[in-house]
Amino acid sequence: MEVKPNETKQISAFFVFFLMPGMQIGVGILGFEQVIAKEAGHDAWISVIISGLIINAFIWMCYKLLGRGPNTFDLVAIHQDLFGKWIGNTFNILFILYFIIISITIIRTYIEVIQVWMFPGINVLMLLTIILVLVYSFVTGGFRVLTGFSLIGLVIVAPLFLLIFFPLKHAHFGNLGPVLDHSFLEIMVACKKMTLNYVGFELLLIYYPFIKKRELSQKWAQFGVLFTMSIYLVSMIVSTAYYHQEQLKGLIWATLTFWKVVDLPFVERFEYVGITLWLFKVLPNICLGVWAASRTMKRVFGVKQKKMVVFILSVILVSGLLLDTHNEIYWFNTLVSRIGFFIIFLYIPFIFIWQSIVYKVRSHKP
Amino acid sequence: MRFFKGMKGKDAAASQCTSNDFQDLFKKFEASKDFLTFQFPDEDGYTISYFNSLVNAQQVHEQVLAVLSTHQKKPLQQLKGDITMEDIKETKDIKVIQRLILSGSIMIQYKTGDETCLLIPCALDVKRKTSIPESEYTVAGPKEAFVESLDTNLNLIRNRLPIPDLQAKEFRVGSISQTRLVVLYIDGIVNQQIVDTVTQRIGDIEYDTIVDISFVGQMITDNRNSMFPQLIDTERPDHLASVLSEGKIGIMLDGSPHALVGPNTIISFFSSFEDYFQIWNLGTSFRLIRLFAVLFSIFSSPLYVAVITYHYQVIPTNLLPLLISSRGVIPFPPILEAIVLEGTIELLREAAVRLPAKVGSTIGIVGGIVIGTAAVEAGFVSNVLLMLVALAALASFTMPIYQISNTIRLIRFPFLLAAQLYGLFGLALCSAFILCHLLKLKSLGSPYMEPLYPMRFDDFKDSLIRLPFSKQIKRPRFLRTENPIRIKKKAETQNTQSDIDE
Amino acid sequence: MKVKMLLIALGCFFLTACGVEKQILEDILIAEIVGYDDVGDNKIKGTVVVSVPQPGKEGNIKKEVYEAVSHDVKAARQQENAETPFPVVGGRLTVIFYGDILARKGLNDYVDTYRRDPIVGRDLYLAIVHGKAEDLVKMETKLIKTPGVQVNELIKQNIRTNLPQVDLHTYLYACHGKGIDPTLPLMEVADGRIRIKGIALFKKDKYIDKYIPYEDGFLYKVLNENFKLGSYEIKWSDKNSTDISNIKSRVHYDITSANQDPKVRIDVKIKASLLEVQGYDLSKPVDVNKIEAKAERILGKKLDEMVTMFQENNIDPIALGDFAKSKTRNFNRKHWEKEYPHMPIDVNLDIELVQTGIVE
Fold it and tell me: How far is A125 from chain C (nearest CA, A)?
């Protein structure tokens, strides 16, 4: 039951700030506007804020979960502590599958973006292989390298967030009014859909033991989520102002289409540069997903993590090839969304309450 | 502790060529023509033997032979006092005898065949004078460079750092060459862990002849297959002295006019020592220009290939006709064009380095002007690419450290191939591979990408930018120094409160 | 180790085997201007201009025109490839022209492909041609730059003074949005030059065969947006006229009770300078006030007429419906649309002359 990794493999609490957006902002941001605008129209930005705050609450729950018991510093330990070895491990395996399919959707959606926007005739097998080799070399570097990659990835794509300035020149901020013109229900449905764009924070349950001075890291985790939220919020507001509602509802990749209007003297059609640079935002996503899955496998089965990484990557390769058309990818994305919704909205509160009950019972009979 | 074990191994290796018997050793020596043995001052006098080629003849005549001829024959013990030279040894240890004779000592025996002998160091020092630094030339600042003699080099450093804490640990490396190697550091500043790492790695060196510090560099770096150098190779004593006081370690080898410095971050390879000779804002600007030059040098020709091959959309409107007409007659695809041109530049560079300086400049003219214009006029390469490649070559010359400029030269080629494969996206993939490598890399156990990752805002003061000396209160954090404070007194802040005209 | 070598060998094999289709710059023809015309029988004729720079010398540009007749845009592009040495690519289109007959039938089908295709930028201009688009596309202009750049700059220059924003994004915004109708520039060939004739008015994607003349483009722009350039010639009588040059104009819409009995007030404020006056003595300040009052009257009438014309044709190019929607809770669009043709729209104009040039 060794949980504590070597100190040289740990990261300082501050980096949790980068890990949060590192896992949350991925391919979703390139086109999330359409999905929530369909539900809440021009009030969609309110949903972005509400769901961001809900995630803040969930992070608080996660920290409660992790800090309460003796030695329960990660999800595997919590499961085994609460449900015993067998049932606990069943849950663990479900989580492993969850992390793997998250990685699959991210990588496949990104490749689809490349197929549609840059190279329609690209050989998916080859591209997938190259990216997975890249993922392998990152993941074998360990968690510290992945944290660094999340940070540097965020630094590299940071200029892209500033490009929001260009569509602002043609923005109609009147489109945002009248505020709160949609019913509470519509906004909450949009919230539910929006929450899926925040998926990724639950990785905290896996990498928690890798944080130095864990208790102090909650602050950074919360700030990280707020940062993610502000990025989503700005994109949502700008796309509401820049597109007409009816236009927005038909756009699959609204954020990507923004980059088309970027007008720089040395480069036209910025979306090609943007998609290229976005690799540095998507790769940390995939790497962290694969790392979390393999780490959990190592903890559950006690096998070598390197071998597990190879196994997971081959699973991703095969399933990435099986998902071929846009419809299939869309279907898979929806499926993952449902599972993600289940994990976030139902499972985390459930295990939180369950743990409270179990600990209360335990403390009554010493 | 490992280090001592290592040294024992060294001795064992050295003893391969040490005969246990004094006579055997003597026979071996006498097999060489330049080994002299004679009786002095007469047939019953001392037996004197030395390597003619190793000793300073003048010193032998004036300080040894002159004394011996004027005094009567005495036992060696008393003779020692007569000769006015330092560090005279009386010994019968065969290993010591061998080593000292081979480093230029005179051996004096009371009579031929005696095992006890007097060893007088009389080494001939063939060395050049300190000269102007060549690979790290700066316009401002000191103009002294290291030379091949370790003692001179140590002298240059000790003159700059006159403190007892400056310690020089000596080793011998190479089973045949037995070269002297010195690890320099300032005790009380340096992190002892780094010293231990270095001494352990030096102890692990297994090689017969080590003639240059670059051998050592390759043998003790963290990742021996990495294209990126992890130890800086400097020839400037002022550079070494100042990094020693930051808490880094210097390694010097006898016979090598360079010193190794570590641990380093990747950014220290882009910072010239001249940055410190200028006011901080100028220094910062030049550092940023150099960083831009690196990026330009690596990415310009791959970007050309990527854009021309795949992404005609991103070319600015006014540039488009220009590019099309320059590309129009070229018979090769862009990738081939770029590789041919880059290859030519590499050829020119190699040729210019191998030739004497005077001929080298001719090569530059021939290559740059004659071949360049001819290639464009013949329609082999486009003039736009020619310009880009020449600029990229120029940009790579701005690197202050020679090793990293080699890395940048070569790293372009994988990028070119990636650009041919997937255009801009290929470039991103290739950069991601390199980023992965850099993130994993360590220099003597310290992270290579610091202060970018692990992010340490303190260390930005002397990395991408250089802040004024008054801001350099602490030593760099990645060195984990034992004494992190550099400036003890707080800088006086009298100017902050003064208002206009007060 | 052997496994690694095998993997590397396999990797190299892959790399050489499967690349991506290349679009090397000199092996493609970059389309710059496209024109579409109705040729009857449900067919359209596409005309495309590609500029072919002559190799060797910079700036030496030849223009080539290709044509094709087909049912839809994409097929027309296919057909053009039948006669070109290299594939024609559309990534750098700058202007698309539509003949007015085609525009009257509705443009949606012919814009859709450009909306859908990721290769097309969003900064390209759309324009209607009075007559045949083909004539305009084929016209030999005295080329300094490539044809695409030239027409593009012509439109861009006028957007600052007399034309509203007319790029693809704006068109799509107005065409798909509710309560707003697009406008496009109307071009014509006059005296061997390409000229802007005015602003073509649309009902959704259909050209209604009415346009605002080029001179009045300034007035439309004043109604539509805040801007800082442009000038307008006010005619008092047949002989005398005044030229005012816009320094800053502000427009504000005010809509009351949009869901029951809608009333619209449009406030326009123009700060202008006076550069040419005939028949007035400028040295007296009283006269400046008189000019202001008179200009307000004349321009106000023109603006009123323009708005009334919009209502009569039941089009809404200045997006009043969209504005009403963003200011009204539970906006009843059906009601608005029913009321629009006969709702009272007031235009209040306020002109302030701030400069009279460098003489008094």
Answer: 10
